Amino acid sequence: MTASGTTTKPSVLFVCVHNAGRSQMAAAYLAALSGGAIEVRSAGSEPADSVNPAAVAAMAEEGIDLSAETPKVLTIDAVRESDVVITMGCGDTCPVFPGKRYEDWALEDPAGQGLEAVRPIRDEIRSRVEALIESLAPAVR
C-alpha cells in the first residue's frame, strides 16, 4: 500500500544482451497475459538496432505485435524501479539492490535463427511468464 492507500502493481524487468529476442518476447507475453496488472520493462546491456524478425514473426503467430518495439539500454534506474529482475541466460550482470527478486532463465538465444527454431523458445518463455504471473498476481489468471 502506498501512502495514498492504493496498492502498487508489481513490476518486472527482463534483461538480455541485445533486448531483441527473449526479453522482448517475455515482456510482450507478460503485458498481454497479465492484462496490465503487472508493470513490464525490458532492456539490454548492448541493445541491438531492432527486434529480431523471427521473434516478431513468432509472436505474431500468438496475436502479439512486436513490430513497433525497439531495443532499450539497461539502466540502473530500471533495475532500481523493478520488483523482479529476470536475466535470460545470457550471463548479463545487473546491479543488485536489496529486497529485489532476481532470476536467471536459461533460454537458448534466438539470434540468427529462423522461425522454426524460435517457436520452442517462445513457448518456453510463455510457460515461464505464466508461472511468474501466478507468483506475482494470482488473481489475474
Overall description:
The protein has 141 residues and is of the alpha/beta class. The protein is 34% helix and 13% strand. It contains four helices and four strands; from the N terminus they run E-H-E-H-H-E-E-H. It has helices at 22-34, 53-60, 76-80, 115-136; strands at 11-15, 39-43, 84-87, 101-104. The protein has a four-stranded parallel beta sheet, covered by helices on one side. Helix 1 (22-34) links the parallel strand 1 (11-15) and strand 2. Helix 1 crosses helix 4 (115-136). It starts with 10 loop residues before the first strand and ends in a 5-residue tail after the last helix. Mean pLDDT is 90; it is low at 1-5.
Annotation keywords:
4 helices, alpha/beta, disordered N terminus, four-stranded parallel beta sheet
List the helices and strands and how they pair.
Elements: E1 11-15, H1 22-34, E2 39-43, H2 53-60, H3 76-80, E3 84-87, E4 101-104, H4 115-136
Parallel strand pairs: 1-2, 1-3, 3-4
Number of strands: 4
Q: Into which percentage range does the β-strand content fall? A: 5-15%
Biggest β-sheet: strands ordered side by side in the sheet: 2-1-3-4
Q: If helices are DSSP runs of H or I spanning 4 or more residues, what is the number of helices?
A: 4
What percentage of residues falls in helices of 4 or more residues?
Answer: 25-40%
**Structural class from helices and strands?**
alpha/beta
What's the helix-strand series? EHEHHEEH
Q: What shape does the CA trace take?
A: globular
Radius of gyration: 15 Å
Uncertain stretches: 1-5
Largest sheet composition = 4 strands, parallel
> How far is the N terminus from the C terminus?
22 Å
Rounded average pLDDT: 90
